[in-house]
Amino acid sequence: MIHTFLGETIGFDLNYKKRKTMSIFIDFYGQIEVRVPKEASEESALRFLEEKWDWVQTKAKEVKERTDGHKEKVYDHGEIFLYLGKAYPIQIIEDNNIKQDKVVFEGDILYIYARSTEDDRIKQALKHFYYQQCKALVEKRIRIHQSSFKVKPRSIGISNDKSTWGTCDSKFQLTFNWKLAMAPLVVIDYVVVHEMCHMVHLNHDRSFWRLVGKMLPDYEQQQNWLALSSWKMIV
Q1: How many helices (H) and strands (E) does the chain have?
Q2: Confidence class of residue 167 from pLDDT cuts 50, 70 and 90?
Q3: What span, in angstroms and rounded, lies between the C-alpha atoms of 125 and 160?
């Protein structure tokens, strides 16, 4: 079906089901489904859709951003990179006299001091910055949450593993993906707590998730942020 409201037009599927309430479901690809009781009228379904219009538009925009994918990064003034969940432009300062390239976050800008402006040099400076920030951040969050655990990590490392945000092995060795420095602090907290909980429960059984939920009742929101925003976390 097609419906226009407040100057915007959307397409959606209207599905009648054996249920008592109405709901709207938007899948990973942005397909909108309005689910209504079998006895509901089409007019009441449209009114319900209009009541949720702002929410639908917001979710549709999020899906569009994700499915459009990301553009190749340009390592030049003004290019945007994430840091702690927010987008900041970079400013490159070329200095042949510096001993080591570095990134300094100041105000609302990521300043990159480099001996040259070659793309690979800027990219490596950014990666080094995120590695350092990630290590400092996770170590601090672990210290904060340590009082909730009787066991301690044997080691804390930063990895380039593209398939996981964090790991914990049977020896309580914790590792974290350096890209976590691009995520909001609450998301970093979730990944840290998740891996620390594996020091108590090595698998993902009910006891594990109960422990995670006890410490972070809103952890599903942080999981959702990673699911929807991880495509933006690139260098």
Answers
A1: 6, 12
A2: very high
A3: 15
